[in-house]
């Protein structure tokens, strides 16, 4: 590791750290609120937790909360200060930086592998519905979810054994995994993401081929799973989720590949961070729109709040009229 890379101060020219920190801070608040609402509504409805798909989406929500609760607050402070301030000496800063980078990459791996599991769950639901009812039970879904969290932690621990490194990125203003001069770590992570991406593509295309048959066999009123919308369009929640992740994640992937060969301007890294963190609020919004349990509860809360506001308005209006009558 070079001293230039590990001097814990930003080297961006033309990027105002506090401004980037404010934007990321707003994204952090939005992500925290959106994911907390989705998680709370899910936990309040025990019936929805009996569906495997709900368990998988809850795991995805937990990964977002891990990002906004443990990684973003520290990064926002560091980017605003334009240096890594957590630690009184070099060794302490190195340790806190490594922990922060571990949490960040752990969250990224969790999101990615959870998407693959959701893709598989959707594939079974549409392509093999009878097998899905027999195999995909809540206990199986819970075991798969725990396995995803353990596997992500194991894959993310390789820098502890000498494969890869977590370091302070002066171009990012926060702590991240480093790819430069670590070809083994780059190849290892690239292989993981290519395998996951290939799995998602294969299961999604396979599912698409059976979509028309599935829609023809289902009753219009049947709402047995989150993957089936009221309009019986199976693009639904998973397709919208892929769009959100693709738009937010793809620029960072392109930048990461280019960074292997060249150092890009600081503005590029800042935009990558801002766009990537939109995932934490975009994903729960997709869930809120497509998941019947979340949408129905939010609609109920909205109507109840609107009714309470109307009652308060009419009550005050009635009191004002009574006071006017007394005065007259």
Automatic annotation (TrEMBL):
<keyword id="KW-0812">Transmembrane</keyword>
<keyword id="KW-0297">G-protein coupled receptor</keyword>
<dbReference type="InterPro" id="IPR050125">
    <property type="entry name" value="GPCR_opsins"/>
</dbReference>
<dbReference type="GO" id="GO:0016020">
    <property type="term" value="C:membrane"/>
</dbReference>
<feature type="transmembrane region" description="Helical">
    <location>
        <begin position="184"/>
        <end position="208"/>
    </location>
</feature>
<keyword id="KW-0807">Transducer</keyword>
<protein>
    <recommendedName>
        <fullName>G-protein coupled receptors family 1 profile domain-containing protein</fullName>
    </recommendedName>
</protein>
<feature type="transmembrane region" description="Helical">
    <location>
        <begin position="140"/>
        <end position="164"/>
    </location>
</feature>
<keyword id="KW-0675">Receptor</keyword>
<feature type="transmembrane region" description="Helical">
    <location>
        <begin position="99"/>
        <end position="120"/>
    </location>
</feature>
<dbReference type="GO" id="GO:0004930">
    <property type="term" value="F:G protein-coupled receptor activity"/>
</dbReference>
<dbReference type="Pfam" id="PF00001">
    <property type="entry name" value="7tm_1"/>
</dbReference>
<feature type="transmembrane region" description="Helical">
    <location>
        <begin position="234"/>
        <end position="263"/>
    </location>
</feature>
<feature type="transmembrane region" description="Helical">
    <location>
        <begin position="55"/>
        <end position="79"/>
    </location>
</feature>
<keyword id="KW-0472">Membrane</keyword>
<keyword id="KW-1133">Transmembrane helix</keyword>
<feature type="domain" description="G-protein coupled receptors family 1 profile">
    <location>
        <begin position="34"/>
        <end position="287"/>
    </location>
</feature>
<feature type="transmembrane region" description="Helical">
    <location>
        <begin position="269"/>
        <end position="290"/>
    </location>
</feature>
<dbReference type="InterPro" id="IPR017452">
    <property type="entry name" value="GPCR_Rhodpsn_7TM"/>
</dbReference>
<feature type="transmembrane region" description="Helical">
    <location>
        <begin position="20"/>
        <end position="43"/>
    </location>
</feature>
<dbReference type="InterPro" id="IPR000276">
    <property type="entry name" value="GPCR_Rhodpsn"/>
</dbReference>
């Amino acid at each position: 590791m070079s001293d230039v890379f590990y001097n814990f101060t930003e080297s961006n020219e033309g990027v105002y750290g506090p401004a980037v920190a404010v934007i990321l801070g707003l994204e952090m608040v939005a992500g925290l609120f959106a994911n907390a609402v989705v998680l709370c509504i899910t936990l309040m409805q025990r019936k929805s937790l009996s569906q495997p798909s709900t368990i998988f989406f809850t795991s995805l929500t937990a990964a977002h909360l891990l990002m906004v609760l443990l990684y973003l607050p520290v990064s926002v402070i560091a980017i605003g200060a334009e240096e890594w301030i957590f630690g009184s000496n070099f060794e302490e800063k190195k340790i806190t930086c490594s922990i922060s980078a571990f949490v960040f990459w752990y969250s990224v791996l969790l999101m990615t592998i959870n998407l693959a599991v959701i893709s598989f769950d959707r594939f079974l639901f549409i392509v093999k519905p009878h097998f899905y009812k027999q195999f995909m039970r809540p206990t199986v879904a819970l075991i798969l979810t725990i396995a995803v969290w353990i596997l992500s932690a194991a894959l993310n621990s390789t820098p502890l054994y000498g494969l890869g490194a977590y370091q302070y990125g002066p171009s990012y203003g926060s702590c991240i995994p480093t790819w430069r001069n670590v070809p083994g770590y780059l190849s290892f992570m690239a292989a993981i993401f290519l395998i996951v991406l290939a799995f998602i593509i294969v299961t999604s295309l396979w599912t698409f081929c059976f979509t028309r048959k599935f829609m023809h066999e289902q009753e219009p009123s049947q709402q047995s799973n989150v993957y089936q919308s009221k309009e019986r369009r199976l693009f639904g929640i998973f397709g919208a989720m892929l769009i959100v992740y693709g738009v937010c994640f793809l620029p960072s992937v392109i930048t990461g590949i280019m960074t292997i060969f060249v150092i890009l301007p600081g503005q590029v890294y800042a935009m990558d961070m801002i766009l990537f963190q939109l995932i934490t609020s975009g994903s729960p919004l997709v869930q809120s729109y497509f998941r019947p349990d979340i949408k129905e509860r939010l609609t109920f809360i909205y109507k109840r709040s609107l009714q309470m506001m109307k009652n308060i308005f009419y009550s005050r209006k009635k009191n004002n009229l009574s006071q006017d009558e007394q005065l007259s």
